[in-house]
Amino acid sequence: MKKIAIIIAFKNFRDEEYFETKEILENNGFKTKTFSNEKGIAIGKFGGEVEINQTLNDLNIKDFNAIIFVGGSGAISLLNNTDSYNIIKKANANKKIIAAICIAPVILAQAGILKNKKATVWSSNMDKSAIKILKENNAIFKEDLAISDENIITAKGPEAINAFTKEIIDKLNKIDIIQT
Questions:
Q1: 3-172 sits in which CATH class?
Q2: 3-state DSSP assignment of residue 27
Q3: Distance (Å, rounded) from C-alpha 27 to C-alpha 29?
């Protein structure tokens, strides 16, 4: 069975980006495991709760086919750091699928893996800062709901969940069970 690590912020992850993505992936036959920056009960922006038994430091890239970063304001305040960058770089070096939704593509950009890659990210008419960060890190910004470039998948936000999960499922269905 193909395995996916889903990474959420301990506080203020985007509930639907986690719960709906996880449900769609599991309903398509994939096994998921959730990680965060702390152990305990993670709380989403809208009050959703997830019991976290393993932190980012417990994540062994070789045990997973894909790594997903969920968005929400907590993604930037709690996951945009060296621990996440190390996971992303190691996953990329091992040719794992790396996916991020909403604001989380900023973390991929700052980890250095979006250079010359097509990517999208959440933005609004009032806040284009995430697009600016992608461009500063040499990503090729696209307005698509979800976009795939080699092993990297990015998506805009909750409205992109179906397109995001479709890209992940399509990529997972094309790989062997565990890539090492």
A1: alpha beta
A2: helix
A3: 5
